[in-house]
Write a structure and sequence with these properties.
Low-confidence stretches: 1-9
Largest sheet: 11 strands, mixed
Shape: globular
Bound molecules: GDP-alpha-D-glucose
């Protein structure tokens, strides 16, 4: 797909503008060295694509590489605007302020956040270029939907220039308690940046409550119920739990090829009695080390029987950030220790895959697993838990789920755990691995109903409907 550039003097006809850290396409080199854009499938794109098409929308984002701004182009039948980041901005804004300041701070300081004034300056500059692109693209009275912690200053920066637009913001990760948030030297600027929006969406009610408290404490504003008064405006902060395209994923899981592949996976694992599965970005928020610790102890205590296997997909993530390199070593040492102690020639108790897979392979893995392990120490939602449920159309399987995920509020049929409590985690894994088919069905049915009814389209409709009406969520 080649970019079709529109001329720079094009009017700005877009009534719907998505501003997200990343573009919904990946860049590769065409045969002549020109940019070639391929769709990068993801929940957000499939949720927003219909709205984008209906309302003549545009998506503003970054390609993921350092280099000049690709500007306005068309790819995959969507209008896109690529923001350019220099190598220094990638280092200071993306790897620095986003991934080494905000990410650990917003995940309850599981890793220590670093505060550097140079990184903050880069954050302000990059947020300004996203905001300017939104201002340039928005038609009079347009709706602008800004996403995530990388762009928290954009709502205010847009509002300063455009009083005519409606601005929504959705935070995909947790919003921390005030005692933690207060560490941020730029806490007031961040709160004020967000308060440029008309509606602020969070994953859980607790996140919205934390934000309201931060508005009082860091910005000295008055809140009433779920609203903050900002001059003559009222800003609402509420929970809109994100979800997945459950029907599309179930369709993939039902394909003959995918079901056959699931059988092949079990065969390749030597037909174990129980397959445990973990699928995560290799991130310290996901609780992979505690999971391995619990599993290793269960093997030592022989509580899962001899024919058990853990498949752990840890897809590569943020490999240039120090804490992620350390985590990789910790995880890989733990895996080799368990395999060193319990493997036999030809079979290993942990299959560790530091790779990324196509969606079909992911669906086959979900189908092949008896027990899904989600043990995040902190997670805004955790879509993996919902994907597992969507794939289990025969209502079998069991989910062990950390109570520190947004998904725990909705997936009440899971075995909920405190991942810091290793004994509790071990008991939950044993109960999930030895569940009766009738109990599994009852729990899975409950979870499937929730995930199928509250899918990602429902999430987008509910957020945009609330933004349009200016009233609270249903
Ligand atoms: C953030 C928040 C919130 C993973 N490996 C592969 C692959 N994946 C896909 C999964 C899932 C997605 O990536 C991961 O989503 P999560 O929700 O689990 O976590 P984050 O990436 O941390 O996302 C999180 C989310 O935003 C949405 O608001 O839920 O709390 O942290 O969809 O399937 N997909 C493919 N190959 C892989 O190897 N194809």
């Amino acid at each position: 797909m080649s970019p079709m550039r529109t001329t720079p003097d094009d009017p700005s006809p877009h009534r719907f503008v998505v501003v997200a850290s990343r573009l919904p396409v990946d860049r590769s080199e065409g045969p002549g060295g020109e940019a070639d854009w391929r769709p990068s499938p993801g929940g957000l794109v499939s949720a927003l694509e219909p709205v984008m098409r209906e309302s003549g929308g545009v998506w503003i984002g970054w390609s993921g590489d350092a280099g000049p701004a690709p500007g306005l182009f068309r790819a995959n039948d969507l209008d896109l605007v690529g923001i350019g980041l220099s190598a220094e901005q990638v280092r200071d804004y993306y790897e620095g302020f986003c991934n080494a300041t905000l990410w650990p701070l917003y995940h309850d300081v599981i890793a220590p956040p670093e505060f550097h004034r140079r990184w903050w300056d880069a954050y302000v500059t990059v947020n300004r270029s996203f905001a300017q692109a939104a201002v340039d693209q928005a038609a009079p009275g347009a709706t602008i939907w800004v996403h995530d912690y990388q762009l928290q200053l954009v709502p205010q920066m847009v509002r300063e220039q455009r009083a005519d637009v409606r601005i929504g913001f959705f935070n995909h990760i947790p919003f921390p308690g005030y005692e933690i948030f207060a560490q941020l030297p730029w806490r007031r600027q961040v709160v004020n940046g967000l308060l440029g929006a008309d509606l602020l969406g969070f994953q859980r009610r607790g996140d919205a409550a934390n934000f309201l408290r931060a508005s009082r404490r860091a910005a000295g504003l008055v809140t009433r119920g779920s609203t903050v008064r900002v001059g003559d405006r009222e800003v609402r902060a509420a929970a809109f739990p994100i979800s997945i395209d459950a029907a599309a994923l179930e369709q993939i899981a039902r394909r003959d090829t995918v079901r056959k592949r699931a059988d092949e996976i079990r065969l390749a694992l030597d037909e174990p009695h129980t397959v445990l599965l973990g699928i995560d970005r290799l991130d310290y928020t996901k609780g992979i080390p505690v999971r391995l610790r619990a599993y290793g102890e269960l093997l030592r205590e022989d509580r899962l029987g001899p024919r058990v296997v853990l498949v752990q997909v840890a897809s590569p993530s943020r490999e240039r950030v120090g804490a992620y390199r350390v985590l990789r070593d910790v995880v890989e040492q733990a895996v080799s220790r368990i395999n060193g102690e319990y493997a036999e020639v030809g079979s290993a108790p942990v299959h560790y895959l530091h790779q990324s897979y196509p969606r079909e392979e992911m669906a086959a893995l979900y189908l092949a697993a008896d027990v899904m392990l989600v043990t995040s120490l902190r997670d805004g939602m955790n879509l993996v838990a919902k994907e597992y449920v969507a794939c289990r159309y025969d209502e079998s399987g069991a989910l062990v789920l950390s109570e520190f995920t947004g998904a725990a509020d909705e997936l009440t049929g899971a075995f909920l755990v405190n991942p810091h409590d290793i004994e509790g985690l071990k008991d939950a894994i044993v109960r999930a691995a030895t569940i009766s088919p009738a109990d599994a069905r009852r729990r899975m049915r409950l979870m499937r109903r929730r995930v199928c009814e509250h899918d990602v389209a429902h999430w987008a409709r509910s957020f945009l409907g609330t933004l349009a009406s200016g009233s609270g969520p249903a």
